[in-house]
Amino acid sequence: MSAFRDAGHLLRFAGLFVLAFIIFLVVRKVVVPKSFGEYGHYRGASIGEIAAHPAHFAGHQACDACHTDIADEKKGGKHAHVNCEACHGALGKHADDPASVTPAKLDTAVLCVRCHAASVAKPKNFPQVDAADHANGVPCETCHKPHNPALEAGGAK
Amino acid sequence: MNGVEGFMYPNEVELVWSVLIVLYPYITGLVAGAFILASLERVFRVDAVKPTYRLALLTALSFLLVAPLPLQLHLGHPERSPEMYFTPHSTSAMAMFGYVYLWYLMAVLVFEIWLDYRREIVLRARRERGLLRLIYKIMTLGSDNISERSLHIDERVGWVVTLIGIPSAFLLHGYVGFIFGSIKANPWWSSPLMPVVFIFSAMVSGIACVMVIYMATSKLRGTTIDMRCVDTIAMYLFYTFIIDFSLEMLDLVHRIYEADESFRSLNFMVHTKLYFSHIVVQIGLGTLLPLVLLAITQVAKLSEMARKRTYALAGALTLIGIFAMRWNVVIGGQLFSKSFLGYTTYKVGMVTREGLPVAIALTLLPLLFLWVLVKLLPPWDDASAAHGATGD
């Protein structure tokens, strides 16, 4: 019995732990969102919230539906697999309401080198040029049609 | 681009882990090392180091309290960090580390210090007045029992806690090494030796730190340094340092012999960008020189004064060397590109949340904590006697 009394202070310390643990559980209950873990290690309700965000991108198919001419032009060229919005930027709003939202003009001096600037890190077979050398300050679209850029060898040059 | 040579992927140009992330393993290492030193006395009954037992525990606690701060300052949203406790993911090394940290802080360090000081705490709660009395009263947890038997029980329980504490200290710092060693995308870090190297370098830095703090505080308080104690500590420092150095060399030799695809790039880095911090500071000044100094004290018969000076110098160099080691791991691991085709530069910020002033403040903060702890719970042997005399 006295051994128990002499170890009483240890029980107090242990009590501190139990108390801290209970507080932890209570706080946890309060702060962890209700839907956490519903589907996985995340907040289940976030799926709905994210789905409710307005879409910024309209997607290839949407553009093709109205701009059939360009879609046709692009289809046969080297840029066939480059998405419209990869160059034109997110145009969801424009696709919803073309009359009031007009896409900004693109500057090919910035746009084309974003993908085609020569770099050792790019796969060897990806077409790349040193812009200063290759275009000499002439805008790219003078020679290349953006939607179908390949030139017949010796064509324009 | 600024400071970039060759090719870097865009996300590699800026270093995301700054000098604060260098401090984090450094401080955690000091904790683990100081605790291991304390356990020498408690578990392995090395009586000579007794004068530093309590000091080592308090040092460990004050550094442990600061250890998470660099991480908090590094986070963009520090208020979200508790989420790692509330909804831990089993694949998150950091979340698991959070629990190790809490366990080590509360179940090992605070508990052990409390047990060891309980007698003094109770006596002071009876003696002090005002606010101090209240503080000590709270620390007693309302138990006034300091009977022979209860103190005996404390002694036994304290021993068990220290015993559990040793693997916990290894776990604590092993985990820090693990966090780096398990990053398979980074060849500079990814090595199963990393946790082991971290543990031994932690022991080295912690032992050196307590030794230097002990010598400095003795000087400040005008008491004599217990030479048997520092001689023993220096001996242990020497031995652990040899193990630590061998492990690091083993890692190095292994890398050189294996010479995998990352080797040319890393080798280049060690010869250029990291030359000063790695070869000169870490290996030269921070490892070989203190090792030689300590070796001299082991083989030659030096005067007491000469030994003191050598220990102080070796200790300070060791602390710098281990800091350089953390620097080279954390910063070095981010200076090269995963493409192995380019290198970037790290410039320590000044007036940023992760800048140099913040780093210096965080390094000094544990000393402030230690000062407060030492005031509250004097670790010196002569403390009770001095107190009786001045009657404060």
Give a written overview of the molecule.
The complex is a heterodimer of chains A (157) and B (392). Chain A folds into three domains: 2-51; 56-101, no CATH class; 105-157, no CATH class. Chain A has nine helices and no strands. Chain A has 157 residues and is mainly alpha-helical. The longest helix of chain A has 24 residues, at 8-31. Chain B has a domain at 20-182 and 353-392. In chain B, helix 8 runs antiparallel to helix 9 (227-258) and helix 9 (227-258) packs parallel to helix 12. A two-stranded antiparallel ribbon of chain B has the order 1-2. Chain B is mostly helical and 392 residues long. Chain B is globular. Chain B has 15 helices and two strands. Chain B has helices at residues 19-42, 53-66, 68-74, 83-86, 93-127, 130-140, 148-181, 193-221, 227-258, 263-271, 275-299, 304-330, 332-335, 356-376, 383-390; strands at residues 5-6, 342-343. The model of chain B is unreliable at 383-392 (pLDDT under 50). The A-B interface holds A 2-3, 5-10, 12-13, 16-17, 20, 24, 27-28, 31-32, 36-37, 41, 119-121 and B 7, 9, 82, 85-87, 89, 106-107, 111, 114, 118, 140-143, 145, 147, 149-150, 153, 157, 339, 341.
Summarize this entry quickly.
The complex is a heterodimer of chains A (157) and B (392). By secondary structure, chain A is mainly alpha-helical. Chain A has helices at 2-6, 8-31, 45-51, 60-66, 68-75, 84-88, 92-96, 108-116, 131-135.
